[in-house]
Each structure stands twice: as structure tokens, then as C-alpha cells.
Amino acid sequence: SFMQGSKLEIPLWLAKGLHDSKRRIISVEPPKIYKEAWRTVFSADANVVDLHKMGPYYYGFGSQLLNFDNPENPEIAQTILQTFISRFRRIMDSSQNAYNEDTSALVARLDELERALFRAGQKGLNDFQCWEKGQASQITASSLVQNYGKRKFTDVDG
């Protein structure tokens, strides 16, 4: 049995299940990477942090933490957003120059969301280069663009 005030590490899903703002069964303390000392590091230069080592789901986990009534939530949310913004340009730039430089060191330091963005950037560049060389028969509009076009025509018809 646990005494009141005991600290223990539990999975996020269990913490969410036990958290009840009315009954106060548990209070949740954020992992160190979301605390003030690390927020200071992120605000100084977010690009130097090895997010994969610190937590491969930094953005996803951090946004889930905001479900708990922590007084530091506004600062945590701001840091998550600013970290994403400040790292995004470098990730996209590197994904577009992937053929000219070794990006393995950069990718190793990325959160899973950032890795997905990097791969999407590489795929876009690769698809474009194939089309440019005549290796792709055509460029197809994304479904988003196609649906937008259809909606515009039906608006005109009506």
C-alpha cells in the first residue's frame, strides 16, 4: 500500500485514468524535460537538444500532459510550440538538401513527429526530381486540391 504523498512512475494512460480533478486521487508531476530548467535550454537554442534521446514523442506526450491541471501548463505549451517552430525550418531545409549532405546525425536527434516531417520533405523532393527527369508520367493533384476544385464548381452550379 502507498502512503499519501508517495511518488511513483506510472504510464500516461494509467495517470489519465486515475486523474480526477474533483476527487484528487493523484497529482501529476511532468517529466524533467518539460520542467523549467529544460524550458530554459529550449528557449536558448532548441536545435541543440537531442529530442529522440530525451523522449521520442516529445510533442505528443507534452500535449497529453496539458490534460492535467498543472500550474506550469501555459509555459509547457508555449515551450512545445516554440520548440517546434524553431526546429521546423532546419528539418525542412535538411530534408531538401538530403542528397548533398549526411543527415543521419540530424535525424537521430529528432522526435518521431519531426522524423515523419523529414521523410515527407524527402519524398516530396524525390517525387519532384523524378518528374523533372521525366521518370514520372504526371504529377497528380493532392486529394485536398481535387476536393477544393470540386467544391468550387458545385458552388458555381448552385
Automatic annotation (TrEMBL):
Biological process (GO), any one: mitotic DNA replication initiation
Subcellular location: Nucleus
Gene Ontology CC annotations of this record: GINS complex
SUPFAM superfamilies in alphabetical order: GINS helical bundle-like (SSF158573)
Domain of life, source organism: Eukaryota
Function field: The GINS complex plays an essential role in the initiation of DNA replication. Required for correct functioning of the GINS complex, a complex that plays an essential role in the initiation of DNA replication, and progression of DNA replication forks. GINS complex is a core component of CDC45-MCM-GINS (CMG) helicase, the molecular machine that unwinds template DNA during replication, and around which the replisome is built.
Subunit-level organization: Component of the GINS complex.
Protein name: DNA replication complex GINS protein PSF3
Originating species: Ceuthmochares aereus
Organism lineage string: Eukaryota, Metazoa, Chordata, Craniata, Vertebrata
